[in-house]
Design brief:
2 copies of one chain form a homodimer. Chain A is of the alpha+beta class and 140 residues long. Chain A has a single domain, classed as Trna Endonuclease, Chain: A, domain 1 (3-Layer(aba) Sandwich), CATH 3.40.1350.10. Chain A has a 5-stranded mixed β-sheet with strand order 1-2-3-5-6, sandwiched between helices. A 3-stranded antiparallel β-sheet of chain A has the order 4-8-7. In chain A, a hairpin with a 4-residue loop joins strand 2 and strand 3. Chain A is globular and about 40 Å long. The N terminus of chain A is likely disordered. At the A-B interface, helix 1, strand 1, strand 2 and helix 2 of A face helix 1, strand 1, strand 2 and helix 2 of B.
């Protein structure tokens, strides 16, 4: 039950992200949870505008820290390498707008998984417009 | 019931196509039938290899002729224009391997829908390797 609830919550956030992407003139979709007829790894959301193709692993959380299993990121890289897309972890912390992280910039744990902390994500993360090539955030 | 049966059949063929695409080193997926969190038009199958991106509307039939509604093709074009993909109708006639048709080359009816005849599709259609840029079929 708990899992279902989290799962539905995640879906709602994914739908929100897909709508935002269309609003930015990207064609976007949630990929099928069943794997879309393949056991190959698929990202949660895929989008493109003819120039930029992005694949997003979506994480929604009410916490200030969470972990992502390395196998999940390996799968994201594998998909992106073949399809031709830029990999991102799209993070929706509660009450905060979408933040996007390049997996390569995320801290690793000793067991090689990925640790995302809200405080650093807010600094290192990119905004939607930035990953879509629509804006450059100034950094000093 | 009849519709469900046809629907499942189509799904099986779509899965087959997705597997064939991965075998050709394209990352591919069936798109979610619910529209993937968007009411925007989505193709049945989407694939890419970093150079070529293709969006396929899948039709499976036991007949020698079938029609495709113009609105469906309009939707395919719309998706492809935004996402950056080449549109195809992927046709699986029973007992015959996959054939791919560019919508623009398909005959139109007087009501502006698309009419696909097996006899002409076998001549005008492209094979999977051709649309993936892996092969050029000689035509005299």
């Amino acid at each position: 039950m708990m899992f279902d609830k989290m799962s539905r919550k995640g879906s709602a956030e994914e739908r929100d992200l897909v709508h935002k992407l269309w609003d930015k003139n990207f064609a976007a979709m949630r990929t099928p949870s069943s794997g879309g007829a393949t056991k190959k790894p698929l990202p949660d959301v895929l989008a493109g505008n003819g120039k930029i193709y992005i694949a997003i692993e979506v994480k929604t959380t009410t916490r200030n820290k969470f972990y992502v299993d390395s196998h999940q990121i390996d799968g994201l890289y594998e998909f992106c390498d073949i399809f031709g897309a830029i990999p991102y972890i799209g993070v929706k912390f509660k009450y905060i707008k979408w933040i996007f992280l390049s997996p390569e910039k995320i801290e690793r744990t000793r067991s090689d998984n990925y640790r995302v902390e809200k405080s650093t994500a807010l600094i290192d993360g990119l905004e939607l417009d930035e990953i879509l090539g629509l804006d450059k955030q100034l950094r000093f």
